[in-house]
């Protein structure tokens, strides 16, 4: 497995954000956004592939991965989209190429439509973007997060492993599963896991859903055909709402397309990001 470490720190209002960059300093910048309950680790192989032609920026959102996790922390979509806009300014990126997965898709859409973040192109991978969203499990945990926070560590670990595993169609390599679960274990990881679910609120996508027709940048929507978290029909609907968006279903992939079909996704992204604008 590719070693993955974020070496830089950005001090945000929601806590320290860990980030990193790789690839050619003179290459077109690409920013990768992860979803929930994941981290930038899910982009490791694709980031290295893109780095052959681009300067690639990756980051862990506050409350996720290697970034700060703390009691009472605001990790809502509202905060994450503002922090993303601030990070783009911190990096000096005026119109980067943006690739966003799951919850990160909502972050990129809100930053663009509400905070004026400009992109050269936008690729969305199984994003959280349209109502209704949230599985019955997700809603249950959100409503009872304080109860779930009290689970014995062994039960919590088993719950998180099962939940993360369900994002993959063929199944995750054990080492990958361990890496994805590790940030949510112990203190402060266990509390952070339930905190980010408790703060997930559909109103943050409701605020922008009717504005997707305003998106004027080239847009690619990729979707795992076997996604059990967000059905592929939602991807087709999203692509239809964005003018001239290109829709690409990916066979054999679940919600974690980066793990289930990395070669196919990388090929699609390289082709899309290389196209003249």
UniProtKB/TrEMBL annotation:
GO molecular function, one term: catalytic activity
UniProt cross-references to SUPFAM superfamilies, sorted A to Z: alpha/beta-Hydrolases (SSF53474)
InterPro entries, per the entry: AB_hydrolase_1, AB_hydrolase_fold, Carboxylesterase_BioH, Epox_hydrolase-like
PANTHER family tied to this protein: HYDROLASE ALPHA/BETA FOLD FAMILY, PIMELOYL-[ACYL-CARRIER PROTEIN] METHYL ESTER ESTERASE
Protein name from the UniProt record: Oxidoreductase
Species this chain originates from: Streptomyces lincolnensis
């Amino acid at each position: 497995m590719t070693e993955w470490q974020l070496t830089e720190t950005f001090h945000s209002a929601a806590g320290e954000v860990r980030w990193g960059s790789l690839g050619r300093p003179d290459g077109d910048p690409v920013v990768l956004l992860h979803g929930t309950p994941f981290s930038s680790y899910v982009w490791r192989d694709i980031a290295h592939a893109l780095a052959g032609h681009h300067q690639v920026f990756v980051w862990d959102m506050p409350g996720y991965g290697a970034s700060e996790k703390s009691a009472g922390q605001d990790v809502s979509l509202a905060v994450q989209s503002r922090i993303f806009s601030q990070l783009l300014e911190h990096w000096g990126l005026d119109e980067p190429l943006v690739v966003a997965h799951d919850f990160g898709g909502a972050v990129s859409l809100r930053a663009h439509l509400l905070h004026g973040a400009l992109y050269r192109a936008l690729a969305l991978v199984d994003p959280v973007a349209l109502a209704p969203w949230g599985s019955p499990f997700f809603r249950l945990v959100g409503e009872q997060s304080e109860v779930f926070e009290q689970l014995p560590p062994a039960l919590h670990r088993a719950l998180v492993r099962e939940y993360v595993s369900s994002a993959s169609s063929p199944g995750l390599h054990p080492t990958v599963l361990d890496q994805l679960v590790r940030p949510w274990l112990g203190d402060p990881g266990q509390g952070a896991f339930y905190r980010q679910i408790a703060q997930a609120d559909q109103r943050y996508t409701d605020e922008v859903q009717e504005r997707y027709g305003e998106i004027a940048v080239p847009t690619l929507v990729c979707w795992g055909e076997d996604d059990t978290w967000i059905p592929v029909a939602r991807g087709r609907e999203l692509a239809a709402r964005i003018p001239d968006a290109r829709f690409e279903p990916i066979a054999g992939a679940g919600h974690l397309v980066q793990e289930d079909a990395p070669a196919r996704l990388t090929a699609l992204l390289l082709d899309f990001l290389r196209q003249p604008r």
